Backbone:
């Protein structure tokens, strides 16, 4: 069997799941700003555990498929599009690891009943939402690049 016939559908599936999961969090994130501080922390803690490890695995599977397709795809246009997709996915993962994950880890250490006295100053909601939008846009753009690559194969 041609590896492209396995890699392209897998990249589309994993990329679609990743983009969809991040799109859900982008759409739901503004609700975080409406929650009272005491409710925000447990809601954030609960939601993050629902998306991990699903999101990182989806992003990684799509990235690996894109990298493999960049090597084995028969057409230059397909190789270029999946390479762009891989770059966008790597960028989304970088944002996740350097911006969102540190916030998630810090929030996971907090007791919602005993928040730091200066939590209003440290409140990460706006930063987390901003970076979540960035990584969501990158994942959706990567999915679009993969859809373009799939279309070029047809």
Residues:
């Amino acid at each position: 069997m041609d590896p492209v016939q396995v890699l392209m559908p897998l990249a589309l599936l994993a990329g679609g799941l990743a983009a969809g999961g991040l799109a859900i969090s982008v759409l739901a994130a503004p609700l975080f700003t409406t929650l009272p501080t005491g409710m925000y922390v447990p809601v954030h803690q609960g939601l993050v555990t629902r998306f991990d490890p699903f999101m990182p695995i989806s992003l990684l599977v799509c990235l690996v498929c894109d990298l493999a397709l960049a090597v084995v795809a028969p057409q230059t246009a397909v190789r270029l599009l999946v390479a762009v997709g891989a770059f966008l996915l790597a960028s989304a993962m970088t944002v996740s690891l350097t911006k969102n994950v540190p916030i998630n880890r810090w929030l996971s250490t907090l007791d919602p009943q005993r928040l730091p006295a200066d939590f209003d100053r440290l409140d990460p909601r706006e930063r987390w939402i901003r970076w979540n939008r960035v990584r969501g846009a990158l994942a959706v753009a990567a999915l679009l690049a993969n859809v373009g690559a799939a279309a070029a194969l047809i």
